[in-house]
Design brief:
Layout (H helix, E strand, L loop, with lengths): L4 E6 L2 E6 L10 H16 L5 E6 L4 E3 L4 H10 L3 H17 L5 E5 L2 E3 L1 H4 L6 E4 L4 E3 L13 H4 L5 H10 L5 H7 L4 E2 L5 H10 L6 H8 L24 H9 L4 H12 L2 H14 L4 H15 L3 H12 L17 H6 L14
Parallel strand pairs: 2-3, 3-5, 4-6, 5-7, 6-8, 7-9
Antiparallel strand pairs: 1-2
């Protein structure tokens, strides 16, 4: 294993640091594999009383996954993308049902794959520079890694807003919405980590909370979520756009501009996936996401979005549809089709 993951046991604390700071700690296949191995081993180790995950450097907790690998694998027609998604989603499911306290220090960028290894855990601690986002529609994709499960449970208006626009939340907004459930100033994260390693962690929440109470603060209070969020409660994305266009104010206009830049197909599928996700348990939502992900490999927009944003960086994608009205129900449903590949056996 390379040094992309740094792991150690300090006292009763199992501590994992994502160690690709120049790549904003974006997840690779090796990182997913090693995190899974460590979490499974530590869950069975009676000496380990809690898990802490943080990111190296001062810019990001984790800003996503290896999107270029997914692009190249899809183009080549090999199984690297499928393996990555299967293993990443299994890791997300493991975190969601993990039996010991799972703590993440979500300072800096928390996006895409970084959301999947944090938001499903028990303790999500924001710092001064937390920036949370699910920006996948901008690359012709959808908010996966459990996004279709947790986004609607934030409230359908908030969930659709975040999933469709890729809007960025600061620390105050993350706390207000519930993405983060604790705040410790960034300059106290090292002391908090040291205190955890010195505590008698016994696998209980009480032991972790006893440490957190010494560091946790109310956090910034400038959440400022606008009333115009109600536009995202509409029945479909064209209706959301019409509602935004009919509202006064800069915020609504900015959301409309943002939506019109995204892939119409990705927006339509995202809206439907978040809507359906509210009725699914976590494992079923992840199963659905795997089907959608594999089906996106057959679309033009997935490759075009990654090309425009991350390869050529011309920021001028040529989407498969000119507008949302051009996307048919049949085209949306095609992305939810059960895949022919063997279904993922998620970790029990």
């Amino acid at each position: 294993m390379t040094n992309q993951i740094i792991s150690r046991v300090s006292g009763n604390l199992g501590h994992i640091t994502l160690n690709r700071p120049k790549a904003l700690n974006a997840l690779t296949q090796d990182m997913v594999d090693e995190m899974t191995r460590l979490l499974l081993a530590w869950e069975q180790d009676d000496y380990i009383g809690a898990i802490l995950i943080d990111g190296a450097g001062d810019r990001a907790f984790c800003a996503g996954g290896d999107v270029i690998l997914l692009h190249d694998s899809g183009k080549a027609g090999d199984d690297r993308a499928e393996r990555f998604w299967r293993d990443e989603y299994a890791l997300n499911e493991l975190i969601h049902r993990y039996s010991k306290p799972y703590i993440t220090l979500i300072d800096g960028f928390v996006m895409g794959g970084g959301v999947g290894i944090s938001v499903h855990g028990r303790y999500r601690i924001a710092g001064d520079d937390t920036v949370f986002a699910m920006p996948e529609t901008g690359i012709g994709y959808f908010p996966d890694v459990g996004g279709t499960y947790f986004l609607p449970r934030l409230g359908m208006d908030i969930g659709q807003w975040l999933g469709l626009t890729g809007a960025r939340l600061n620390a105050a907004q993350s706390l207000d919405i519930g993405v983060a459930n604790g705040f410790i100033p960034s300059n106290k994260h090292a002391a908090f980590t040291a205190a955890l390693s010195e505590a008698k962690l016994d696998g209980s929440d009480a032991a972790v909370q006893a440490v957190m109470t010494k560091f946790n603060e109310p956090g910034p209070m400038d959440a400022d979520l606008p009333a115009a969020l109600t536009a995202f409660n509409e029945k479909d994305v064209p209706s959301i756009l019409r509602a935004l266009d009919g509202m006064s104010g800069e915020w609504a206009a900015k959301q409309a501009v943002s939506l019109r830049r995204k892939s119409p197909l990705a927006l339509s599928v995202t809206f439907e996936a978040i809507k359906r996700g509210l009725e699914l348990d976590f494992k079923a939502a992840m199963m659905q996401e795997l089907d959608i992900s594999l089906n996106f490999l057959k679309t033009q927009d997935f490759y075009e979005g990654i090309r425009a944003q991350l390869i050529d960086k011309d920021r001028n994608p040529k989407w498969s549809h000119d507008s949302l009205d051009d996307v048919s129900d049949a085209q949306i449903e095609r992305l939810f089709k059960k895949t022919a590949s063997p279904r993922q056996q998620f970790l029990d």
